[in-house]
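Friendly challenge for the regulars: who can give me the structure tokens for this chain first? No prize, just bragging rights.
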Amino acid sequence: LESFSSHGSTNRPSFDLQYGIIADSFALNAASRCTPSFSQDVMTRATELVADSADQDLEYLQSLRSSLEKQLKKAKEARMEAESVLSSAAECQSATRNVAIAHERHFGLLEQRLQKCYDEMRDDSDAYMVIGNTLSEVGIA
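First reply, four minutes later:
Bragging rights claimed.
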């Protein structure tokens, strides 16, 4: 809020109201200069109310700040936990991928051994009678 300025014979406020901005209030200061003036009892009581209100506002703001700090702490803890879970998930994914690759290699080796056995059985027609032209069609009589 800006201070009062004099325009001719009357004092007129020259301020811009901005919502959401906390600033000092000059209402009592302005009220003390009004013509006709407020009684001293009214000004004293208003000053007391503003002082009480300021104490309550301070307590409220301190409480709000404490609450926000707690929420921020919990949010940071939750973020750290989420990052830990994400890291564990990435490790599990990598381990699963490595196991899949190892099994694929192992199955490839087994398939090669099976193909070799099939070829040997097909070539040794005296011992085995192989029915089928490919490994997937094989049948032994």
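The mean pLDDT is 80. The first strand starts at residue 5 and ends at 7. Your move, everyone else.
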